[in-house]
Design goal:
mainly beta; OB fold (Dihydrolipoamide Acetyltransferase, E2P); 2 domains; 3-stranded antiparallel sheet; 1 helix; 6% helix
Length: 133
């Protein structure tokens, strides 16, 4: 593993279960026990009904590209590996996540089936990404 120069997540008590699951190569999202909504990004309360009755649920990791853009110009030196695909993936269970698609930009399409993959960027940090299914 080479040195990683991009910004890394700083887990909070609320988001730590998401990042711990990623390190185990699992995708887990919060689900509200009151209204049953999935929640992404991690929060202390459900954004739909404001309940704090939240639990973590393992997701299938399957989904489809809902929307995407190709980043061609680096916003900083840390992102000099442009072009890359920044996307919103709609999971099979319904929620949508912002993520990267690990594929050539010209191969990505809206509605394209994808599956989760994990990028172990440091011994303590694993990023959640998606690749063509």
């Amino acid at each position: 593993m080479s040195e990683y120069y991009k910004p890394l997540p700083k887990p909070s008590p609320t988001s730590r279960p998401f990042w711990d699951a990623a390190r185990r190569h699992e995708l887990a999202l919060q689900r509200c026990g009151a209204c049953r909504a999935f929640i992404y990004y991690p929060r202390d309360r459900c954004p739909k009904c404001f309940s704090d009755n939240l639990a973590w649920q393992r997701m299938s990791g399957r989904g489809k590209v809902y929307s995407f853009t190709v980043v061609r110009r680096a916003s900083s030196r840390a992102f000099a590996d442009a072009p890359y695909v920044l996307a919103i993936v709609e999971l099979a269970e319904g929620p949508r996540m912002t993520t990267n698609i690990v594929a050539a930009p010209e191969d990505v399409r809206v509605e394209m089936p994808v599956e989760v993959c994990f990028d172990d960027v440091t011994p303590d940090h694993t990023l959640v990404k998606f690749k063509p299914a």
